[in-house]
Every structure is written in structure tokens, then in C-alpha cells.
Amino acid sequence: MRFIDLFAGIGGFRLGMEQAGHECVGWVEWDKFARKSYQAIHDVEGVWNASDIRTVRSTEIPRADCWCFGFPCQDISVAGKQKGFTAGKRSSLFFTVTGLIRDLEEKDRPSYLLIENVKNLLSINGGFDFLKLQIELDEIGYDVEWDVLDSAEVVPQHRERVFIVGHLRGRSTRKIFPIFKGNREVDSRPDTTNTLTTRYGEAQGAGSYLVESKPSQVRQIGNTMNTDYFCGNPQPGRVYDPEGISPTLSTMQGGGQEPKVLVNLQVRKLTPRECWRLQGFPDWAFCRAREAGLSDSQLYKQAGNSVTVPVIKAIAERMELT
């Protein structure tokens, strides 16, 4: 299938979709640092792109079978101001996307929509916002299914996200969910481990990590500092067992917020490369971004903002037109 990568970031959607055999025909991303990484990682020559979704016209967008997007979550996330995606400026960009679809003739609309966001989308504003999302998709012709997937099914990171698939009515599309329940793709790996420090060959690209089908809980084993400095948020000072599961990666914009691990009686923070690995990115992708001149702070932020590549791949492998 041909797909469009919206709010593309560093291209986690794109990598997962391409690993499942689909073709990217366009991408949109406004952040200049994310664009720099995206262009370093992916083959972008001759592929349509734009920087601001708000200035795009529907007639510019190449025809595609699927539009992928994780619209900004700052107004929805528990860590954000929780204005909701109807009142918040960033998260309301969802309606910019549906507006573009409204402007397309039905024959030109994508058969699938693949949408990702934080789990809090289901409950913010008493669930009204999620109901509004479903109504909006229904009005532009899409039946929806959704599921909450934890990245710990395929990488050693506890990261719950809601994934929504829209099926354009009248097209023959395949039901997607459930993905992992009773059918985990790593179950058959005899030497799969549940640690941060053990690799499984080339499973998801060199240096990537996998996790047991029933991962152990996130294990905090201490604190590194007086966390009062962080305004009552103890997260930055927590130390985690490297034989366990990483907590959810955030944008980690400074302040020592990177996850810490205790290795050989020494506390250290996860490196940017390790954070990219926790999102399922192969080492070659990280190296290309690093060589493009991205700072550690940007590399941490980009990992925290990304989707988990193997989760996207698992979904994309089930997407087909019948």
C-alpha cells in the first residue's frame, strides 16, 4: 500500500510501515530538527513533503491507501495541561487532517487511517473528546476500531498508547485488532530476553532489544538525588534495574529527566542511542541522525516523541486491501 506520513517526527511510522512492505509517498513535519533527522534517515528524494499541515491543500497530497499520524498530544497527555484536543491548539490539529479528507472526493480518500496518541485520549474530558473523534471520523465516512497497546510487548519499555484504525466505508479493508493478545510476535524467539542490555541479533535492526511476552514490571531500585528540586515530580531521580523494563520515554527536555540505570554499582542515564533502541529504531538510523549534527538533547527529545517502530510494523502487517 501507499501511505502518507503526517506529523512525521523522525519517521517511526514510516520505518514500521516500510518494514511491513508499504511505500511512503509523502510526509509532513514542521520541527526543523525532526526534519533534519528524517531527511538523514529516510530516502526523501522525489517524495512529496510539506512543513506545516495548516497550509497544505488537499489537492497537493498524493493519492494514498493510508494516512498515518500521531497528532500532537500536549493538550491530552497527563504530563500536559489537559485542555483536550478540541480546546487545545496543538491537539486540535486532528481536525485539520479530517478537514483535508473532507475536501477530497470519496474516490480519492485513503482506505485506512492509522492514528496514534496517548492513552489519556480515551478518558480526558470524561471521554467526550474521544467520542467527538469517533463522530468526526464517522462523518467523513470512516468506521473505527481501536486498542491500547503496550510497547513492552516487543521492546523493554512500558509505553501504553491508543491506536485507532479508520476503515473507509465501501472499501474492502481488513480488521486489525487485536494484535498482541495471545499472538505476540516474539513468543517464538527461544533466546529473547527481558533486559535492557541483551540484544537479539538483527531482529528489529542491529542493536535493537526485545522483551519476553510477559515482561516483568518496571523495577525502581532507588533514587539518585533530592527530587524536591523537580517541583515534586520524583521521576527524574528514579533509578531502574537494567534487568527490567524501562519506564515510558518522554520528550526529556533537559533537567536530568533521562531514565537512570544502575550498572556495576554505578548510576548512569540511558544514552540517546539506548533511548532510540527502546523505540525500536535500528542503530543505522540513530547513526545517520547523529552524523547529521543533532545534539543529545534533540536526540533524547526525538526518541520520546516517536512511536515504537515494531508496534507500527505489527499493525501494518495486518493492513491490506482485499
Automatic annotation (TrEMBL):
The keyword Repressor does not apply. The keyword Metal-binding does not apply. Its EC number is 2.1.1.37. CDD domains: Cyt_C5_DNA_methylase. Coiled coil: none annotated. GO terms for biological process: DNA restriction-modification system; methylation. This is DNA (cytosine-5-)-methyltransferase. It comes from Levilactobacillus brevis.
